[in-house]
Amino acid sequence: MRIANLAGRLAIIDGERAIDVERASGGRFEADPQAVFDVWDEFLHWAPAVDPATAEVFDPAQLGAPAPRPSQIFAIGLNYADHADESGMELPPEPAVFTKFQSCLAGPHATVELPTSTVDWEAELVVVVGREARGVPAERAWDHVAGLTVGQDISERTRQLVGTLPQFSLGKSFPGFGPTGPYLVTADELADPDDLEIGCSINGEVVQSSRTRCLIFSVPALIERISAVLPLRAGDLIFTGTPSGVGNARSPKRFLTDGDVLETWVGGIGRLRNILTAQADPGTDAD
Ligand code: ZN
Asked: Where does the pLDDT of residue 282 fall: very low under 50, low under 70, confident under 90, or very high at 90 and above?
């Protein structure tokens, strides 16, 4: 199953058409896309019986973040060996966990403002939690996943790497720095949810290309390690890390500029298309 946030309303996606869940369920399920994760099992039970005749063609421009208000967002640094290598870092013995703050989330077609000239890209597979997870072993981890979506962990490298204690969470949380979507796809739709094509391009030039089987800590391993410390709640997100090919590791370094079109994909799930724009002129008193 594919679900989406369509103009702020939960929808089931059927090809080019969408079913509004609140209307199709007669109000049994709320329109709020975030609310469904609190009743995920009930929703999974109901959804197969929905009448496809109620589906209507939708405008992809109206797609928003599938889980727009998670209580927690986890993100993992250095989770592909080739990216750790290009960053000059050793492989981490435990997942390198930081957060992206909720206010950075954006839709799959959001325009993102560049606050500086050192903004970088990171294509990522994003996990959406469907059932609370506490102390869950890897073998049972997929049972706690609602589905997968595509994410961009957009990163302002100057802020991220400044000082003796780097500021990952702030440097990756400027407004719009967490586009996700276009859909949440349940794992049963994917031939192998642990081995998906992942990549991104700038103005059509592919800059990252890998597969999620190359993750150092797989989706189940991340759920095991994080849920050993704290509860993962329904609707939470995990940005699972990025493969090699980021701009900061290039020689010369390369960053996003005004007008760039950043496309990010995960096989079997879909594609984000985000346009970067220069920061609006803040103006001066002399105007
Ligand atoms: Zn990242």
From this structure: low
